[in-house]
C-alpha cells in the first residue's frame, strides 16, 4: 500500500511537472457551436494568431511557450462548467470562458475553488467580475462605459429626447438602461422604452409605436444585434422614424455596413478602430496573411488582446505559470498594448479599462467619430438584475 | 384609429409569413404524420443561396428563383436521404430524425460557411415604404402579403385541380386506401416535401428580406412559430394552418402594440396563454383536419 501511495505520488509529481516548465497551458472553454459561436469563433481565430506569433519567437519572454487546450462548450452554461472542471483537473494555468456573462458565471464555482484565473472572451457586463470574485476577469469595454460614451456623444450633438429599446434576455442587451441613466444625468429626457426578445423577427409593432410619438425622439438607442438589429432598423425607417439610431458593439459586423440607405448615419460604440498605423491595422493585415481573409469582426482582435494580456501577466510574474501568481499579475497589469487598445486591470475589480471607439456608418463604410475617454463621474454603477 | 389600422397591416404581413411556414409543416404532417423540425433549415439553405447570389451580383429576381429552387431540392433530398429509410418506423423515430437533420445541418453551416451572420445584399426598394392615406406601409410588408395571397391561391388550385394535388388530398384522408387505389406513395410523399420546400423557400425570402442576414441557427425561430401556428390551426389541416398563422401574427402584433409597457416583458407568455385558451375551447385546433375525427378528451 505504501509502495502504491509512493508511486502514485511520484506519478502525480511527474504529471504536474510540465506545468512548471516553459509552457503556459491556456484552457479554452468557449462556444465553438451554438448561439454564442458568432462571437467565440472569431475570438479563437485572434487567440491562435497571437499564440502562434509569440511561439514563433520562442515563447513569452523567449522561453515560455503557449499551448491552447480547446474545448467546445456548445453555448451551454452547464457544459461550460463541466469543461472548466475538466480543464482545471488537467492542470491548466488560466481558463478562457465564453463571450456571455451567463455561461461564464456558471464556471465561477470551479475556478474559485481551483483558484485558477479566468477571462471571458468578450462578455461586456460589468457585473461579471463583480459576481465572479477575485479570479474572474473580463476582456471588453463594459456596457456601462460604452453607454456613457454614446450618451455623452448624443448629448453633445444636441439631442435631448431619447427612446430606448432593450431586451431583458441577457445582461448585454440591457445596455440601453445604462444609456438612459447617463442621458438623464446629463439633463436629457427618455421619451419612452420598448422591450424586445432576442431573435425577434418582427419589429413593426414597436416601430409603429415610435412613429406615433409626438414629438419624435431625437435618438433611438438599442443594443440589439444581428439578426434583430437590421430588422429593427428597417422597421423603424419603413415606419417613417428618422431620429438618430445608436447601437453598440454587437452591430460591429459586415451586415450593418451592407444595409444601404437605412443604416446611413447609424452610430455605435465598439472596442476599436483601425486608424492608419494603429496596432489594429497591423493585426488586421497579419490576420489576413494567416487566414486568407480579413477578420469579420472586432472580436478577432479582442481574442488577440486576450493572449497579449496573458503574455504580459507571465512576464509580470517573472515567467511563472502558476495560477495564483498569474491572477495577481493580471490584476496588477497596466497599459498592456493589445490590438484594439491599451488595457489596464490595475485598480479595477476585473473589468478592464479599455478605449471605446465611436463609429458612424457613412456611405456604407466605417467612419471614426471619436475615441473619447468617458468622464468617470458619469459612468453608472453596475446594475444587478 | 390610424394606429390600429397600421398595426393591422403589420399583423397581416407577419401572419401571412407564419401562415406560409405553418402550411409547410402541415403539408408534410397531413400525409406522413411527421412534424419536420428541419423545416427551418430549408429556410436557412434558401437564405444562404440568396446570400451567395447577392455576392455573385445576380439580379434579385434570379436570386429569389434560385433560393426557392434550392429549398425545394433540399426538401426532396431530405426526404430521400433521411426520412425514406425510417418511413415505416414510429412517429417518435421520425421526429427525432428531423431534429437530428436540423442539428447536423446547423453544425455544417457553422463549420463550412461561418459561425457568424452573413450579410445578404438586398435591393434598396425592399427597405422603402409607400403611403396610403394615413398609412405608411413598407414594401417588404406589401411583398409579404402579396406572396402569401399568391401562394394560397396557387396551393388551392394545385390541391383541387392537379393530379398530384388530388392524390395528396386523398392520401391525407386515408393513406392506405389511397395506395390501394393505385396512388404511388413515393410520388405523394416526395410531392409533399417539394411543396413544403417551396413554401419554406418563399417564407425564407420574406424572412431574410426583413433581417438582411443569414446565420446557421436562423431556422429555429420560424419553425417554432410554424409549429405553434399549425397546432393552433389544427395539425394536418391546410386551412387550419393558414388560420393559425394569421391568428398567431395578430396575437403577437397586437400584444406588442397595445400591451402596457410594464407587461411587455411577459408578452410571449401572454401570447402563448391565449393560444392555450383557444385550444381549450377548440382542442383540435381552429379548423381541424378531417382525418382527425376523434374528439380529444
Number of beta strands of chain A: 14
Helix content of chain B: over 70%
- Write down the CATH class of the largest domain in chain A: Alpha Beta
Radius of gyration of chain B: 19 Å
Percent helix range of chain A: 40-55%
What does this structure look like?
The complex is a heterodimer of chains A (385) and B (297). Chain A is an alpha/beta fold. Chain A folds into two domains: 2-141 and 276-343, Response regulator (Rossmann fold, 3-Layer(aba) Sandwich); 143-270 and 357-370, Rossmann fold. Chain A contains 14 helices and 14 strands. Chain B is built from eleven helices and four strands, in the order ααααβββααααβααα. Helix content of chain B is 72%, strand content 4%. Chain B has a domain at 17-218. Chain B has helices at 2-32, 39-56, 60-83, 91-113, 139-161, 163-173, 175-180, 185-211, 220-233, 238-258, 267-281; strands at residues 118-119, 129-132, 135-138, 213-214. Chain B is mainly α.
Brief overview:
The complex is a heterodimer of chains A (385) and B (297). Chain A has 385 residues and is an alpha/beta fold.
SSE diagram, text form:
The complex is a heterodimer of chains A (385) and B (297).
Chain A: H1 2-20, E1 23-30, H2 37-56, E2 65-72, H3 77-89, E3 94-97, H4 101-106, H5 108-114, E4 118-120, H6 127-132, E5 136-137, H7 143-156, E6 161-166, H8 175-186, E7 189-195, H9 204-211, E8 219-222, H10 228-238, E9 244-247, H11 254-257, E10 267-270, H12 279-291, H13 299-316, H14 323-331, E11 336-337, E12 342-343, E13 357-362, E14 365-370
Parallel strand pairs in A: 1-2, 1-3, 3-4, 4-5, 6-7, 6-8, 8-9, 9-10
Antiparallel strand pairs in A: 10-13, 11-12, 13-14
Chain B: H1 2-32, H2 39-56, H3 60-83, H4 91-113, E1 118-119, E2 129-132, E3 135-138, H5 139-161, H6 163-173, H7 175-180, H8 185-211, E4 213-214, H9 220-233, H10 238-258, H11 267-281
Antiparallel strand pairs in B: 1-4, 2-3
Helix pairs in contact in B: 1-5, 1-8, 1-9, 1-10, 2-3, 2-8, 3-8, 5-6, 5-8, 6-8, 9-10, 10-11
